[in-house]
Amino acid sequence: MEPIDIVRLEEAVVVFYRSTSQEQAHLHEWLTKVQLSAQAWQFSWQLMQLGKSQEAQFFGAITLHSKLMKFWHEVPAENRDELKQKILETIIQFAGGPKLVLNRLCIALSAYIVHMLNDWPTAIEDVINTFQNQQIPNVTKEMQLWIMLEVLQAIPEEMQAIYTSVKRSTLRGEVAKRAPLVMETTETYLQMQLDREWDADAYGNMTKAVKCASTWVKNIGFSIENCQNITALLLKMVNKCYWPCVQDPDGDGCMSADENDLAEVCLKTLLYIIIQPDCHLYPITASILIKMFLDSLCDITKMEWKPDNNNEDIVSSIYTLFVSAVERHSTLLLTGITTSDPELSSLCSRLVNEILQCTDKPGIYPVEESCSSMALGFWYLLQDEVFAIAYEAERFKCWEYIRPLYAHLTRILVRKAEQPDENSIDKWTSDDLETFRCYRQDISDTFMYCYEVLRNDILDILSTVLDETIAQLQTNPTLWTKLEACIYAFQSVAEHFDGDETKQIPKLMRVLNEIPYEKMNEKLLGTALETVGSYCQWLKDNPIYIPSAIQLLVRGLSSPMSAQATLGLKELCRDCQLQMKPYAEFLLNECQAVLTSGQMKNSDCVRLMFSIGKLMSLLTSDKIPSYLDIIVSPCFEELTAICQAETKTPQARIRTIFRLNMISTLFSSLNTDLDDDDQIEDLQNVQPVLIVMQKTMPIFRRIAELWVEELDVLETACSALKHAIVNLKSSFKPMLQDLCYFIVAIFQTRCCAPTLEISKTAIVIFYKDEGCKSLMQRLLVEFVSHSFKLFESTPENGFSNIAETIEMFYACLLQIVKKIPQSLDDKAIAYDRLIFYALKAMTLPENGPIRTSIQFLSHFVMQSRNYPQMTVAVLTAGEEILKTAVVCVACVTPRQQVEKFADIFLSVNKKYPAELAIWLRNIMLQSPNFPTNLVDEAEKSRFITQIIREKVNKRLLQQHITEFAIKARGLSDKFQ
């Protein structure tokens, strides 16, 4: 690099830090190169001279740190002592600020210390002695302490980040030897501060001291056997931060920002202490520390157990500590449940009770409280651990212990699931509502864990809550939130109950129909509708309750909760289809009325068509046409009108997609060939979808012509036809010729993923039918040839632009070669192009084409020995296939994807083992730098041997491929 002009550099730095992001992007690349240059060792000091701009000084400091971190090997051994002195002198120079520069210099000294641990073994002791004993003149005591703590805190982080030839484990061991000294230093300082009045400077240094201890515990570790003193100190500090402000009669009871920060970092440090990787090896010490937590902190959680409390942050941190401690020491908890030791038993009960209180925090999450969500994971863990106990007697004892807990928890969860009412909703933001929605889902999952413990008893508990809620509503009809939450709880556990439950669910069904929804918030009706849908399996075994369920769902169709109503009706028609026969015509009339009204959203109309299809399937053949005419004709009439007018406006496109989605959904569910032993005798084997298709296929062709440039329209049209094919199967045969015309018409204009997929669906279903085989073979040839036209017209560097189509092409061919390989035995199919573009797909950066092309080629190779022409194709292209695979593994394909290439090597090895050995040696050994210059001849020979040897063990072959990829890419050091 050319010599760097310090004036120009300084100007560039100032512009960089004071300019917009667009201007910064211009300078960033040059400044990065400058930092990497060897000259950076000199100019970093020049930029930090007094009188320079703060931006220049900061850039000088971060450059020095970057060089120490990444380019230590550039520092000659004889210059290292001088470098240390310069760093120390510059730290003293900036002791008066700016702190931004001073901070980076302290971190630079930390990086220097980590590199020099062998040559300067007393580095940490020397730093502590120098700054703790105030050996620096003209620098305040507080600032010397700040510098010391900043340096000490950065050492563990620098140990993990610096570039060094020393093994990371060795380096970590050397740093760990200094942990007792650092912890002792911070403990001594904090102990001195406890008995003093705290000012702003004291808070800053105490917070820094605790962060220092926290960083060492988190990144290096410090056995909990030695942590009782620091634990006691930190707990005292938390209490000293909290109680004076709460008990001050003249204050507002709210902790200051300094107090909050110090308390939070103390609690986080305690958390790191109690969750260290090896702390489970010391259960006695862990129980002592947890008891210290409870003794010291429970009064705070008790004081703040209220909604909208002033000190929510500290309570959240305390509960996080409790929950983390019990999750890390779950074995200790289970021991406490089964033990005869009263102290341990009492300790575990106290801890569980605190977590129960956390779950039960007053107020609505997240607006009035922010703690309760963190406890929900514990309730999964507890029941999971209990049921995993190997010994039955011990497991039963634990289960007996937790049953009343989960019974209490169930009632708590109903309260916590309550939504905000009309009076409080105004203070909720959209983010709050989304957070609450996720929280309610977590509560729903927790109800499931309660079921695992309580089984059917959970319904008795919920039924009691339901009775209490209904009684409260008699006196205060506006209290709908508790009723809604109770119904939501019933919904959450619905999947566990079959038709045998005949006590509480019938009561729930009765209550759902008796609620005066018109007098209450519409959300209550929405939850009731969802709940009816969730009990469809139960309704199937108890059809006497279906009429009341239908009554409620019909009520919901014309309400603002139509989405939930259409969802519930869909589930009812799917799970209880045959039981719905007596109500089919009534429901179809109601569906038609609500569709005609135009009051439902498009998505709800589409969903409703599923139920319409299921209900129509129950009618006798003479009644279906009239309903098709009433309900389906408007869809085709509108589509016809759009096509005739050739209207290509955005609104027309939206209406086309909407109507096609309605038809597609109907085709997926309308099938009079009901496959059920209880099939009603008068159900004729009439396929109304075929009648519709015969009348409307020309409309599909016109849609394809009009909207051929709009992929989402084509996708929806193809989806409708695919549902018709899959639904009708052999009954679709009369329409196959028209379908092929439709597909080829699109192919002639454009080749796209939806058309490829529908082609594959038809070919796979009908190829084996002798009457359709010839047509399907011609369709397959069109499928391949039109795809080739697209590939041939694509620029060499533009294949990523059609990655989705390439992915679908080879995904479809994969299904074809797996299910009907004989269809590919056709001279009209150019195997060389098929393989060529598969190899092209393998080299793309997108995962989809890589995956499907590899799978296709692997199956093509596996099938090829059964077909002479395919055998010739593989023998001709085999060496190129392997060469491309090796190059992809070595340097082209994203590293996370290289394992997939094992399929190609395995398939070739199974079907062409002799050729594989020859091809690999030709590829790997004839070119000196193939596939990269980072693998030598011995490594290539070893890789060839590994590939040839592994004929079955895919996992081991993947391991070999990954190791080769790492070597070929020069990543061995990173993954050592």
From TrEMBL:
Record-level GO cellular component terms: cytoplasm; nucleus
Q: What InterPro entries would the database entry show?
A: ARM-like, ARM-type_fold, Exportin-1/Importin-b-like, Importin-beta_N, Importin_beta-like_NTR, Importin_rep_1, Importin_rep_3, TPR_TNPO3_IPO13_4th
The reply to whether Nucleus figures as a keyword in the UniProt entry is yes
Q: What is its main location?
A: nucleus
Instruction: Tell me which UniProt keywords the record has, alphabetically.
Output: Nucleus, Repeat, Transport
SUPFAM superfamilies, from UniProt?
Answer: ARM repeat (SSF48371)
**Cross-referenced Gene3D superfamilies, in alphabetical order?**
Leucine-rich Repeat Variant
Q: Report the family membership.
A: Belongs to the importin beta family.
The protein in question is named: Importin-13
Q: Give the organism, scientific name.
A: Glossina fuscipes
Query: Its encoding gene is what?
Result: LOC119641516
